């Protein structure tokens, strides 16, 4: 793996868990991002993501343990503005409900705002009440066009 870092603004943000324990949200280097990818995706972080100038990732640690991550992209738009897309927010089951997800999303939003993004979007399951409560509490709202559905296309093997 190279020594390049994913595009991420900031360095380290410390926060206190509800248990009183100190945690950190970090703009990770390759090794920490790789550790988080192995934990939450079951495979290492790929070089293409690490090299992409639009990649944005943060990892939450408590002590030396990776307990969560938030990754996505800072996307330029044709109208000259830019926006954030959160592809995945994940907190280890044993650490949920302690404010780690909030810290990760807030750090992601702060970094994106500093980079010039004016909006952020993400998708979550309609029945994921914990995630929806978090996003609502952070000022998120449902898409203005009304209920939406997500389509995924498998492109491998297409002509």
From TrEMBL:
Keywords: Acyltransferase, Transferase. The keyword NAD does not apply. InterPro entries: Acyl_CoA_acyltransferase, Bact_Acetyltransf, GNAT_dom. Pfam families: Acetyltransf_1. Signal peptide: none annotated. Residues 15-159 form the N-acetyltransferase domain. The keyword Transferase applies. PANTHER family: AMINOALKYLPHOSPHONATE N-ACETYLTRANSFERASE-RELATED-RELATED. This is N-acetyltransferase domain-containing protein. It comes from Kribbella lupini. The lineage of its organism: Bacteria, Bacillati, Actinomycetota, Actinomycetes, Propionibacteriales.
